[in-house]
Design a protein that fits this description.
heterodimer; A: about 400 residues; alpha/beta; Aconitase, domain 3; 3 domains; four-stranded parallel beta sheet; 16 helices; about 40% helix; B: about 140 residues; Glucose Oxidase, domain 1; 2 helices; about 15% helix; lyase (chain A); isoprene biosynthesis (chain A)
Chain lengths: ~400, ~140
């Protein structure tokens, strides 16, 4: 693997022990994956933010580090909202340890935005190389924005943030971004408009870790977010294309891509509708991945002047929620809660429900194991109606 | 008599101890007790054995990436291996070895199946060499 003279100095320890170790991690990963060189990154999203995941020893390791990040870096969602954790029923000893993890990251210069939607916080452009961790964020960066990232682990994303580079392999290379399987959606426009999570859930199981390309659908950005998040949960899809919609698909078309040679899997309207079943629910959760401004606006519109009958939790990035105080106010007037920093999947606050209704194919895939609850999938409108007891 | 085996350096430093060879991959998260260094995965060929102070040779890591922090915990509890040899390094073990400052090599010229438990071995993770004292 090629290292420039600056990299060599870092590896020799001339810029301190922490940077030396971070460079050693990146070089080791470069060897493991056969990278020939490094590529500079524009941002990082660091996993290993929840105390529930990294535990006492992860915290000790973070505290042992002494350096600052070289590029803007944010965190994955954590186990609680930073401010209103008591309101969510989080025990204070967990909160203390979670806060200690956050302080350790703050000392390293990581911005304490804990979100699976870093693209709403740090502007990311087509062709940018980044080092992101959370599976739906990785999918969105690669597929919807056309940035380039592998799915990073906690230490590798932090190492990339501190050094400002990542090994050049995997999805950073154009040749690894070619579609490998095609999905044709055979359903009425009205069926799939609100059901991209279900389509993603089905497609992810079939795609595994291959790069899929979809034909016959025209999703907007929030629908793409739902589609990719679900495929990253039910499968291991880190990049997908939608013919004529996602940026790489246009480049592939210009370069003569022929979809007809690929294995083609058809998803029908009946298969999509079979995922939705009637069931009594104890709580409703929306915001997996974290809500965009448009989604908060839609939810606020549906809740305006009404009162929820069962818990309705909305999850969003701190930066997005705080930029929209009126929408958050309207939502909370109904008795629903808008939580920042945490999420449906990682929060212990979601552990005490029997059946949770979600509008997300990703949450639908993870809730049974991560929250110990049954999951029901519905459109956003159906979720809000269930919360209102309509 | 000592034999030198060339490998590829993954984590720098020098470590030595008695070889402990596993024919199966190792998952550190839930497979190894971080307090004692004893392999606890049910049915694993090394089940019940301590990896503390050994030169631990196994094909590759498996399981959760949180395993990297378990390797760090083993080191802090003074029950880590002195060095690691893998047939093929993957991120969990490579990152864990670097966090824990455990010398590590992979891709040895001599397959790990030909290495014997109890032989005294020394690893240089910088040059990527394995020295085995064959008494």
């Amino acid at each position: 693997m090629y290292l420039d003279s600056e990299d060599e100095k870092i590896l020799a320890g001339e810029y301190g022990e922490t940077r030396r170790k971070m460079m050693e991690i990146l070089v080791a990963l470069g060897k493991v994956f056969g990278a020939e060189k490094f590529v500079p990154i524009t941002s990082a999203q660091v996993a290993g933010a929840s105390y529930k995941t990294i535990g006492k020893w992860g915290l000790e390791w973070l505290r042992s580090l002494d350096a600052r990040v070289a590029v803007p870096a944010v965190l994955n969602p954590i186990g609680m909202p930073r401010e209103r954790w008591q309101e969510m029923g989080i025990p204070s000893d967990f909160a203390d340890k979670q806060n200690a993890v956050l302080q350790a990251y703050r000392r390293l210069g990581v911005k304490l935005e804990c979100t699976c939607t870093p693209y709403y916080i740090n502007r990311t452009s087509y062709g940018d190389h980044v080092a992101w961790s959370e599976s739906s964020a990785v999918s969105y960066a690669n597929s919807v924005i056309g940035a380039r990232t592998n799915r990073e682990g906690g230490p590798s994303a932090l190492a990339a943030a501190i050094i400002g580079k990542t090994p050049y392999y995997g999805l950073h290379l154009w040749e690894n971004r070619m579609p490998q399987v095609a999905f044709r959606i055979e359903a009425e426009e009205t069926v799939h408009a609100s059901h991209y999570g279900a389509i993603g859930y089905l497609a992810g199981k079939e795609a595994g870790n291959r790069v899929p390309i979809f034909t016959g659908i025209r999703p907007n950005r929030d629908q793409l977010k739902a589609l990719g998040a679900a495929m990253a949960a039910s499968g291991a899809v880190a990049l997908y294309h939608v013919d004529g919609i996602t940026p790489d698909s246009r480049v592939l078309r210009e370069r003569g891509m022929d979809i007809s040679v690929l294995e083609t899997i058809t998803i029908t309207g009946e298969e999509i509708e079979a995922i939705f079943k009637e069931q009594t629910v104890d709580a409703v959760a929306i915001g997996c991945p974290h809500c965009s401004e448009d989604e908060l606006e839609e939810i606020a519109g549906l809740l305006k002047g009404k009162t929820v009958k069962i818990p309705l939790y909305i999850f969003a990035a701190r930066g997005v929620a705080q930029a929209n105080p009126n929408l958050v106010g309207t939502i909370e007037m109904s008795g629903a809660k808008v939580w920042e920093d945490t999420c449906i999947v990682v929060s212990p606050g979601m552990d005490h429900f029997g059946t949770i209704m979600v509008n997300s194919g990703k949450a639908f895939a993870y809730v049974p194991n991560m929250c110990g609850a049954a999951a029901v999938l519905g459109s956003t409108e159906e979720c809000i109606a269930a919360a209102l007891g309509e | 008599m000592s034999i030198t085996i060339q490998a590829r350096g993954i984590s720098a430093g020098i470590g030595s101890g008695a070889l402990l060879v596993s024919s199966e991959p190792i998952s550190f998260l839930s497979g190894v007790d971080p307090d004692s260094g004893i392999v606890i995965e049910s049915g694993h060929p090394l089940e019940g054995q301590s990896i503390a102070g050994t030169v631990l040779a196994f094909p590759f890591g498996k399981g959760s990436t949180v395993g990297s922090y378990v390797i760090y915990a083993l080191r802090r509890n003074n029950v880590a291996p002195s060095a690691i040899i893998n047939t093929e390094a993957e991120p969990i073990i490579a990152v864990g070895a670097i966090l824990a400052e455990i010398p590590m090599v992979d891709r040895p010229d001599t397959p790990i199946e030909d290495m014997k438990d109890g032989m005294s071995a020394s690893i240089d993770g910088s040059s990527g060499t394995i020295t085995i004292n064959d008494e």
